[in-house]
């Protein structure tokens, strides 16, 4: 079986070009080093070194040496990561829907630590449907998702309504300018794929249509892509990010009709006490951050 010691012998001998020096570097005597080299060559089915006048890599050895170095580096990283995880203690795994603005997402993720929780925080950003699945399976401890969503037995906090802004192409002051492009009311609305949060998507589109206008949408991968379409005069975008903008883009609060970003914190009550601490208590901390933002 190929072992880490085999790789250490290979790399040390390639760099030292001397059996005695390589043995000293690896921390063994010369006979075991020679035996280990022969075993490695037998396992790989190639001759790694020429030994007639000194010690030199063969063509096959030179080809395999970078692979051996990378394998040793990967093993070292694996040990270091394991040591950090062991020393770090409990980890709190949070999921955040991509619609949550970055500054708010940072405050949400930091809330448990600021409240005195000594868990190590890890966060992922993923669509609501993915987050719900990951919380249910135990890959995540909690997640901030869009509402409404089908929870399938997950526990959830109250629904928080974040204000949003409509981003539209800026129009010249002269309304009769034929080069100004279509009215923002006639442009499609940039939206993320419906499959990411079907119920929330449908509620959003239905709310837009409640004013009697025909709603057209254009699917984008994220808000940056949506903003690019707005800047190009080809779409409008609704966002909860109060800082998202670009040149020749107008911003106004979405109030007619109101189009709040509906969020709630979810967790799996069946996994409470399984090393994840108190998910309900942690969920309350996250919810408090969202509620303070919504109240501003």
Tally of alpha and pi helices = 9
CATH homologous superfamily caption of the largest domain: Periplasmic binding protein-like II
The backbone outline, from C-alpha atoms, is elongated
Number of structurally distinct domains: 3
Taken in chain order, the helices and strands follow as HHHEEHEHEHEEEEEHEHEEEH
Mean pLDDT: 90
CATH topology-level name of the largest domain:
D-Maltodextrin-Binding Protein, domain 2
- Strands, count: 13
Strand content: 15-25%
CATH architecture of the largest domain: 3-Layer(aba) Sandwich
**How can the largest sheet be summarized?**
6 strands, mixed
Rg calculated over all Cα atoms: 29 Å
Name of the CATH class of the largest domain: Alpha Beta
- Helicity level: 40-55%
Task: List segments where confidence is low: pLDDT < 50 over at least 5 consecutive residues.
Answer: none
Pairing-aware structural class of the strands and helices? alpha/beta
Distance between the termini: 63 Å
Q: Which descriptors apply to this entry?
A:
single chain, 296 residues, alpha/beta, Arc Repressor Mutant, subunit A, D-Maltodextrin-Binding Protein, domain 2, 3 domains, six-stranded mixed sheet, five-stranded mixed sheet, 9 helices, elongated
């Amino acid at each position: 079986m190929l072992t880490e010691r085999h790789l250490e012998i290979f790399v040390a001998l390639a760099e030292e070009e001397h059996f005695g020096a390589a043995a000293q570097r690896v921390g063994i005597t010369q006979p075991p080093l020679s035996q280990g080299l022969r075993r490695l060559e037998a396992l790989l089915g190639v001759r790694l070194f020429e030994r007639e006048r000194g010690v030199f890599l063969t063509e096959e050895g030179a080809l395999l040496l970078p692979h051996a170095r990378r394998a040793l580096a990967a093993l070292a990283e694996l040990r270091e990561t394991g040591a950090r995880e062991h020393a770090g203690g409990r980890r709190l795994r949070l999921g955040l829907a991509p619609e949550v603005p970055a500054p708010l997402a940072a405050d949400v993720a930091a809330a448990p630590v600021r409240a005195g929780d000594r868990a190590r925080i890890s966060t992922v950003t993923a669509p609501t449907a993915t987050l719900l699945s990951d919380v249910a399976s135990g890959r995540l401890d909690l997640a901030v998702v869009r509402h409404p969503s089908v929870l399938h037995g997950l526990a959830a906090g109250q629904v928080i309504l974040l204000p949003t802004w409509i981003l539209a192409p800026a129009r010249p002051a002269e309304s009769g300018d034929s080069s100004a492009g279509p009215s923002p009311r006639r442009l499609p609305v940039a939206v993320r794929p419906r499959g990411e949060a079907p119920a929330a998507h449908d509620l959003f589109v239905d709310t837009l249509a409640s004013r009697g206008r025909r709603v057209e949408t254009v699917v984008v991968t994220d808000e940056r892509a949506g903003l690019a379409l707005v800047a190009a005069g080809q779409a409008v975008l609704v966002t909860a990010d109060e800082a998202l903008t670009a040149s020749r883009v107008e911003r106004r609060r979405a109030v007619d009709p109101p189009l709040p970003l509906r969020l709630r914190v979810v967790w799996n009550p069946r996994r409470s006490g399984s090393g994840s601490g108190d998910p309900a208590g942690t969920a309350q901390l996250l919810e408090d951050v969202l509620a303070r933002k919504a109240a501003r």
